[in-house]
Amino acid sequence: MTTDDDGHRDGAADQLGTLRARGPWAKAWDRFRRNRLALISLVFCGVLVVVAAAAPWIAPYHYSATDYGSQLVGVGADGHLLGTDQLGRDILSRTIYGLRTALIVAFGAELLALVCALAVGLAAGYRGGRMEQGLMAFTDVMYAFPSYLFAIVMVAVLGRSIFALIVAIGIAGWVTQARLVRAQVLAIKQREYVEAARAMGASGPTIAVRYILPNAIGPMLVTTSFAIPAAIAAEAGLGLLGLGVQPPTPSWGGMISEGTRYLLSAPHMLLAPAAVFALALLAFTWVGDGVRDAFDPRGDQR
Q1: Beta-bridge partners for 90
Q2: How far apart are CA 276 and CA 273, in angstroms?
Q3: pLDDT, tens digit, for every residue of 87-118?
Q4: Dihedral sign, CA of 49, 52, 54, 58?
Q5: Which domains does the chain have, with CATH numbers?
Q6: Percent of the chain scored above 90 by pLDDT?
Q7: Smallest Cα–Cα separation from 55: which of 83, 93, 89, 82?
Q8: Helix/strand/coil for 295
C-alpha cells in the first residue's frame, strides 16, 4: 500500500514538474482551454471565417442577384430561406457576403494597425531620446483626435471601398496599441538577456526583433483579440452612416440601415443581419476575454 501511495505521489510530482517546465505559450493555451465559453466562441469564430471564405459556394444566390417576382417575401417563401429585400435580393446570401466584408475589413484593419503600432512602439521604446519624444508626441496628437471621426474623414477622402475602410479603421486604431508596445519594450529592454545580447555585440534591430518583440507578443494578442470585434462594429457603423462599401456589395451596417426602413412591413430584413452581427461580436469578444485570462499569470493560482 505504501509503495502504491509513493508511486502515485511520484507520478503526480512528475506531472506537476512537467507542467511547470512547459513554456508560457503552452500554459496560456491550457488556461484558455479551461474557459469553455471562450473555447466554444473560438470554434464559432472559426466557423464564421470558413463561411466567409467559402461564401461564393455556400450562398444560394449571388449577393446582387434580383428576383423581381419575389420582392419583400418572408422567411422561407419562394425558395428564400431568410426572405428577400425590397429589390428581391436573397437576405441569406447577402448576410453571408456581409460577413465576408466584415471579416476582411476587420482583419485587414487590425493587421495594418498592428504593423503601425509595432513600428512606432518598438522605435520609441528601444531608441528613446528625441525619437521617442517625437513619436509619442505624434501618438498623443492622434490619440486626442476622435478615432471614429478620423475614420469618417478617411473614408470621405479615399472613397467607399473595402480598401478605404481597412485604411481608415486601421489608421484610426493603432494608437492605443503603440502605447502598449512602447511600455512593454521599456520594461523588457532592461532585462538580463537583453543586456547579454547587447554585450555580445548584437545590433539594435536584432535585439528589438529577436529578443524584445517575441516577449511583447502576449499583451498584443490580448489587445488584438478585442480590437477585431471593435473593427467589425466600426465597419457596420460606417455602413449605417452610408459610408460603408459601395453598393451593391453588402455590409451588415448597410443591411441594418435598409432594414430599419421596412421594420413594420418586412422585419426579416433587419432581424437576420442584426442577429448574425450580434452573435459575431459576442463570439469575438468572448474569445478576447479568454485570451486576456490565458495570459494572466495569476491564472495558474486559481
Answers
A1: 84
A2: 5
A3: 989 999 999 999 999 999 999 999 999 999 98
A4: positive
A5: 25-301 (1.10.3720.10)
A6: 39
A7: 93
A8: coil
Closest CA to 126 of 216, 200, 201: 216
Query: How far is 244 from 246, CA to CA, in rounded Å?
Result: 6
pLDDT tens for residues 235-270?
A: 999 988 888 898 889 999 999 999 999 988 889 999
Ordered DSSP codes for 115-145: HHHHHHHHHHHHH-HHHHHHHHHHHHHHHHS
Nearest Cα neighbor of 212 from 182, 188, 181 is 188
Give the separation between CA 287 and CA 229, rounded to whole angstroms: 10
CA-CA distances (angstroms) from residue 47 to 52, 55, 113, 249? Answer: 9, 12, 25, 22
Do residues 296 and 248 touch, judged by C-beta distance below 8 A?
Answer: no
Q: Is 23 left (phi over 0), alpha (psi -120 to 50) or beta?
A: beta
Contacts of 297 (CB under 8 A, 6+ apart): none
Q: How far apart are CA 215 and CA 285, in angstroms?
A: 24
Q: How confident is the model at residue 276 (pLDDT cuts 50, 70, 90)?
A: very high
